[in-house]
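Throughout our pipeline, every protein is held as a single compact record rather than as scattered files. This encoding replaces a full spatial description with a residue-level series of whole-number codes. The remainder of this section carries one protein's record, kept here as part of the documentation.
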Amino acid sequence: MADTLYRTHPLEHRREALAGLPAGLTAYPEDLFAAVDLRVDPAGPGAEAVGRALGTALPVEPNTWTHTTDGQVVWLGPDEWLVTSSTAQPQQFEQELGWVVSAFDGAAVDVSAQRTSIRLRGELARELLSLGCALDLRPTAFGPGACAQTQLGQAGVLLLALGDGDFRVFVRQSFATYLADWVLDAAEDFSDFRKET
């Protein structure tokens, strides 16, 4: 019998605890996804070719993201994006995007094992995030379509505003448990504060 390794979610052991947040807050580990770090000249034909392959243009405005049919394209720098897919296999996704950009001196690297994500939703989600993040998270400053590489608690994260009170928090897998525990602790303090007022 051959040994088989199965990919498991780094937050599986926190799933139940995250499901028990107070009213107005919902947090859960999102399903595992394929992710590729993509480098290509945003003004060149390679960017257009990637846009055709993904079904959406690469976002070129700093700190923005856009949807694809099964994921997101997140601006990380002037010529760098994180491209995610909820349906693709990591190696195949890397190969497909790599094939597109290779003709244009671009690069595509599989980073699927680098990050996981936590979804944070609810009318109190923005306020909870503000307890550990120095960004201006008001809807006028960080509305849907915005993203930022920042710190939440003491963990480096990539934060996406998906909608009003709906956020996706990418975190390195080695910091995932820390971040989940921070969310749980902050939510508990937040719940206590609400009871006092």
The CA atoms of residues 70 and 87 lie 7 Å apart. The longest strand covers residues 155-163. The chain has a mean pLDDT of 93.
